[in-house]
Amino acid sequence: MELDALDRAIVGALVEDARSTYAEIGHQIGLSAPAVKRRVDRLLSSGAITGFTARVEPSALGWTTEAYVELFCRGKTSPAEIGLAVARLPEVISACTITGEADALLHIRAKDVRHVEQVIERVAAEAFVVRTKSAIVLSRLIDDTPHAANAAPRAD
Amino acid sequence: MELDALDRAIVGALVEDARSTYAEIGHQIGLSAPAVKRRVDRLLSSGAITGFTARVEPSALGWTTEAYVELFCRGKTSPAEIGLAVARLPEVISACTITGEADALLHIRAKDVRHVEQVIERVAAEAFVVRTKSAIVLSRLIDDTPHAANAAPRAD
DNA sequence: ATTGAAATAAGCATAAC
DNA sequence: GTTATGCTTATTTCAAT
């Protein structure tokens, strides 16, 4: 599906504040409220926008520690196999297979360092995991919480 | 600030769908709409909830490639210095300092592999960067888009 | 201090054009 | 795409626990 400049502006506005009213967004981009709603509905049904969520301060919920864990897997472990295994752990907030020495990279959030260790142990207990290599996050510089700037690749 | 069970349920509901009505949330947790609104307002002003955002499919916006870049910095480069430098690049959607050999880890999104290379070049051009080590994401298994399961540490 | 109920104000959804 | 309209939701007020 093709997104024009207005669609991208709408996405940007909703990324910045998902609770903006259609009228507010319309005013910003020069469109009426119903026109904005129709476009939002279209963006939702096309899958460009997959939903709306609250931005939460992890520390407020007790998630004070985060870590990245590289997974080294045996032989030809499939991405699906890894995904299935780590999806069971709620502490894993992101996982992907990658190029390089390691096979996969996990991003985990936990209550404290001890909790991080428990999660790593659980991951390492999987049959396909040969070894892991972890790095604890010291200070977060840029959050993955989306902002307007990340709504579209820059023109360059 | 202390969050009770009702607050956590509200946060969970809003993480799952930021456009739920107060009445819907109230029905789920056994509270009236105004009571829910008051708690949401409190969660917002206390900073537990920092805002509401749209979940966007990156590929729909042209972000088809992602990578993780480890930064090895010279001497005693401060986290603030790294943060300031990478904040200028819109492709950097996450950045943190970490334990281990590398000093920092960046998560970047780009239009294609060529674009990833350009971003790495720009990062490497910073005076404090000694070298970088990158891994291109092959397949994403778990998204960082928050779901209900990630709204609170599990009881254990 | 926090809640629920009622009343008002605001925004939404759907029509029609 | 816009304008007009009934309907839902948000928000305020107030009494009660």
Summarize the structure.
Chains A, B: InterPro entries: AsnC-type_HTH_dom, Dimeric_a/b-barrel, Tscrpt_reg_AsnC-like, Tscrpt_reg_AsnC/Lrp_C, Tscrpt_reg_HTH_AsnC-type_CS, WH-like_DNA-bd_sf, WH_DNA-bd_sf. Chain A is α+β, with helices and mostly antiparallel strands and 156 residues long. Chain A has five helices and five strands.
Structure description:
Chains A, B: Keywords: DNA-binding, Transcription, Transcription regulation. 2 copies of one chain form a homodimer. In chain A, helix 2 (22-29) crosses helix 3. Chain A contains 5 helices and 5 strands; from the N terminus they run H-H-H-E-E-H-E-E-H-E. Chain A starts with a helix and ends in a 14-residue tail after the last strand. Helix content of chain A is 35%, strand content 29%. Chain A has 156 residues and is an alpha+beta fold. In chain A, a hairpin with a 5-residue loop joins strand 3 and strand 4. Chain A has helices spanning 5-16, 22-29, 33-46, 79-86, 113-124, and strands at 49-56, 65-73, 92-98, 104-110, 129-142. Chain A has a 4-stranded antiparallel sheet with strand order 3-4-2-5, with helices on one face. The interface between A and B is large, with 72 and 72 residues. Strand 5 of chain A pairs antiparallel with strand 3 (92-98) of chain B. Chain B binds a DNA duplex (17 and 17 nucleotides) through helix 3.
